[in-house]
Specification:
Blueprint lengths: L1 E2 L2 E2 L11 E6 L2 E6 L6 H10 L4 E4 L6 E5 L5 E6 L14
Antiparallel strand pairs: 1-2, 3-4, 3-5, 6-7
Length: 92
């Protein structure tokens, strides 16, 4: 989606909830849209947010959350379905 701060054009059509693994300076984070967006608009938003590099995370999402410094779980997105294919990205 983004390489060295520049948007990468892609041919994906349609709109959906978009997710990306991003870097900005020393930060590594996952960005996710709150509404259905095209890849073009999502990539442009990441550039506007000064993201250096971003790769799309594809597939449905059932849960997104993080633990703060006190260990409390903060749920960003929760949808009550499970698929037989699930992905996890965990870092500390």
């Amino acid at each position: 989606l983004v390489h060295n701060g520049m948007q990468i054009e892609n041919e994906a059509r349609g709109k959906s909830i978009r997710k990306a693994l991003c870097t900005r300076g020393e930060e590594i984070f996952i960005a996710m849209t709150a509404s259905n967006e095209s890849y073009h608009d999502f990539a442009q938003a990441l550039v506007d947010l000064k993201v250096d590099n971003a790769i799309a995370l594809v597939g449905s999402i059932a849960f997104a959350g993080y633990r703060n410094q006190d260990g409390d779980l903060n749920i960003i997105y929760s949808h009550m379905f499970r698929t037989k294919y699930e992905n996890f990205i965990i870092w500390e």
